[in-house]
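Re: that chain you flagged

S.,

Sorry for the slow reply, it's been a week of failed gels. I finally had a moment to sit down with the sequence you sent. For the record, here it is as I used it:
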Amino acid sequence: MDLSEYKSKTVGEVYPFVACFTYAANYKFWEECYKILINLNKKFHYWFGDQEALRIINHQKKFNIGYLDESLICSPPEIINKNKVYSIHFKGLHRKKLMINLAEKILV
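Prediction finished late last night. Pasting the structure tokens below so you have them in one place:
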């Protein structure tokens, strides 16, 4: 995917949010995210569109957005034994087997 518009920026600068854990008081936040998303370049409809929408909505300051420490909320499964976490982020195909193995351990 061509993201050359973000050349020389870090991932954290471009996408400061991890969208795997979000909370909203009502549907209006998500409605606004949707409006932004459908108007983005089509390349973002497949990947990173949620991140683009969250970045834009944060920049617009239409909503009071709070922040949580990613290391507590959306930890990758590889480090859960090192940290106490509230949720695990199984993003990517390479982590699907990890998800199944961990679920089997937890559910036993």
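What I noticed first: The helical segments are 11-14, 27-38, 49-60, 70-73, 96-107.

Talk soon,
D.
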